[in-house]
Design brief:
Layout: E1 8-11, E2 14-17, H1 28-46, H2 62-66, H3 77-110, H4 129-136, E3 143-153, H5 156-168, E4 174-178, E5 181-189, H6 192-204, E6 210-216, H7 225-232, H8 234-243, H9 250-257, H10 266-281, H11 287-302
Antiparallel strand pairs: 1-2, 3-5, 3-6, 4-5
Helix pairs in contact: 9-10, 10-11
Length: 304
């Protein structure tokens, strides 16, 4: 008997064929409906009629997609040794440099001001204990001002040779020796602005100058009480004249000059005579000349 022969069923004298499920699971209309629904769903999802199961990998990309990334090249061991040595040397150098810097900074901070170079600038003298000690010992307190510097030289001969340039330009100057260096000064003032104003005139005459603070420490001297009291008045008298732009108050200076005992030491008498000469000639001197004379008196006073 044929297994695939259709079976006929009679119902109410009407013949009906039983459909073989293996050959036709769905009616033709149902298949059509399923295809239409699938096409509509695919169109909504992709916006086109492209196949639903298209491969996500682009054409020609399959080979790249499967290729493994190249392995990283390892640095040879010998280079690692050199790099380690270089970084170690750099770290050690920086550490030693920092230690040496701190060491020298500590030395500079603890140094005695008297041993500092001549270019050293310290805060203004405000009557410290050191100055009081010098005054009590018969000396003079420290002094400071702004100077117009024309040069620094290693010998007095070189300084005097360069000084001729200022003399030829009608600018008076003086040489001050300190710690083996010879400084050429061409002016003095109580402020930096005033000193620069003096320096401008020299710059216009093609003379190179430099404005800087200049300071001297307190001076200890073995004078009598009367002599020490006389010397202590000089810094204030000198400072008043510098602040006035080099103007000498003859009355104040003469009053001070008359207080020195006549039997004082030779060095003090010479200093007295130098100050008296400036007081008597001040009216006939220019401001620049008075400034140089005041500088000379300052230098002479700290050497007493």
């Amino acid at each position: 008997m044929d297994k695939h022969k259709p079976i006929t069923v009679r119902i109410n004298d009407n013949k009906r064929k039983h459909v073989n499920a293996k050959h036709d699971e769905y009616p033709e209309e149902s298949k059509k409906t399923i295809r239409e629904q699938a096409a509509a769903l695919e169109k909504n999802l992709h916006g086109s009629a492209s196949p639903l199961f298209e491969s996500p990998i682009e054409e020609g990309a399959s080979e790249w997609y499967q290729k493994k990334p190249p392995a990283k090249r390892k640095l040879p061991g010998i280079y690692k040794v050199f790099l380690f040595a270089a970084f170690s040397a750099l770290a050690i150098g920086l550490t030693l440099g920092f230690i040496m810097l701190r060491m020298f900074a500590g030395i500079d901070e603890s140094s005695d001001p008297g041993t500092l170079p001549s270019s050293y600038t310290s805060p203004a003298n405000d009557g410290t204990e050191k100055d009081d000690t010098a005054e009590n010992a018969g000396g003079m307190k420290g002094m400071e001002a702004f100077v117009v510097q024309g040069g620094v030289f290693s010998s007095k001969e070189k300084a005097e040779a360069w000084q001729k340039n200022f003399t030829e330009a009608d600018f008076p100057s003086m040489v001050w020796e300190r710690e083996g260096q010879y400084y050429l000064f061409a002016g003095v003032a109580d402020t930096e602005a005033a000193a620069k104003k003096t320096a401008v005139e020299m710059t216009d005459s093609e003379l190179e100058t430099y404005v800087k603070p200049w300071q001297t420490a307190a001076v200890k001297s073995d004078f009598t009480k009367e002599e020490a009291e006389w010397l202590k008045q000089f810094p204030q008298l000198w400072q008043d004249s510098v602040s006035a732009g080099g103007e000498i108050n003859g009355e104040d200076w003469n009053d001070w000059l008359g207080l020195l005992p006549e039997d004082g030491p030779e060095s003090l008498l010479q200093f007295h005579d130098k100050a008296k000469e400036l007081t008597n000639q001040a009216k006939d001197l220019s401001m620049n000349e008075i400034q140089i004379e005041l500088l000379s008196l300052w230098k002479m006073a700290v050497q007493l």
